[in-house]
Each structure stands twice: as C-alpha cells, then as structure tokens.
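Record 1 of the preview.
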Amino acid sequence: MSLTVSEQLTLLAELARLDQKAKVTADRLESLPAAAKKAEAQAAKLKSELDSVLLRKSTAEQVKKAAETDIADERAKLRKWESRSADIRGEREATALGSEIGGAKRHIRQQEDIVLEQMEAIEAADKDAAGLTKKHGAALEDVRAEWAKVEGDISALQAELVASSSARKALLAKLPAPVVKRYETIAGRKQGVGVAIIDAKDICSACNRAVPPQLSIQVMKGQVIESCPACMRLLVHHSMTQAPAAGETHG
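->
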C-alpha cells in the first residue's frame, strides 16, 4: 500500500529529526575526548623527542666504535713499524719510518679525542633519555586516565548512533525511492538538514524566511512535497510533527 503525501511528509520530518539528532551526537562524540587527544599529542611529542635522543646515542656509539676500530688498527701498524726501527740503518729510511710513526701517533690521539667526545655524547644522551622516558611514561598514564574518564560516555553515544542508524534505515525503507533520493541530495548540500518545518506564522524554521501562504496550505493539507523557495529544504507543516518549529536556525 502506497503512502499518502501527508504520510510521506510526516516520515520525512521524522527522518530529518533523526539525522539532526545523529549530527549532534556525532559532534559530541568528536569533541568529548578532546582532553584525551591532547594528552595523546603530548605523549607522541615526547616519544618523538625520545626517539631523537636514542638516535643521537646510537649515532655516537657507531662513531665511537669506528674510532676505536681505527685506533686498534693504527696501534697494530705502530707496533709493526716500531719493531722495524731497530733494524733500519739508512738515514732516509729512518726518517720516513719516523714520519709514519709520528703520523700514526697523531692519528691515534685524534681518534682518542673523538672517542672521548662520543662517550660524553652518549652519557648526555643517556641522561636525556632517562628524563624523557619518565615523562613519556607519565604522559601515557595521562592518556589512559583521560580516556577512562570519557569511556562510558563514548560507549553511550556510539550506542545512540547505532540506534539512530537502525531507525533511519527503517524510515528509508518506507519512503518511495525518488523521495529518499531527493531528501538525501538536499541534506548533502545543507549540512545534513534536508527538511524544514513551517511554523504557525508560515516561517521556515531553517532559514527564517516567510513561506508563501498558498504553499504552506498545500503542505499542511498533504497535497505536495515541495522545497522552501529560499533555502531549498523540503517543507513539512508543524501540525504534522512534534519537532520544534522555531528556534533551530541552521542557515
């Protein structure tokens, strides 16, 4: 059995009410965990700082290890050259060997300085990492605490959205497909609000513009499904719905 225009208008008003309620619920769901999300951002910032410090330490350890390997190689060469010095007789050869030995010793001192610098860098990184690890741990506790505060409210709001979605599907199944498509198109362009109520003074509740009296009468009698000439939302007369006819300006 097909629905009358009046019945379709009543269902459209209920559909719009559900959509508006779902929008409010979704907005609350988005804003509710603001403190938890802020705590998460702070924890993420500290984790990034900690990772940077650990990378700095790792780099210093690699440089230190490379310098220590270089020192070991140079000392091996030095021992080899020094063992040959006693057997050298020619002045030129002795001078050349002395130069090699002197260069190796200078290089070893330079690398030893690098090792000391990197040890200091590692020590500083360990100190920074310890502090940041403590701060990060505290930040994670803050995250857990903030989410725990709103966990119950979030679950309730999510349940509301599920219930609204089920009710919406039931309404859509009753309405003719062309009417549903028209409503969805308008709602998509009007921030989710596809229906406006004509109040007792023939004013559109969505845009606060006057609705032509003849059009208002036709809608009230359930003769037409028409849009507001100003905001283009589908019009429903206040007598067909319990939804508020005024005070809900959507622009």
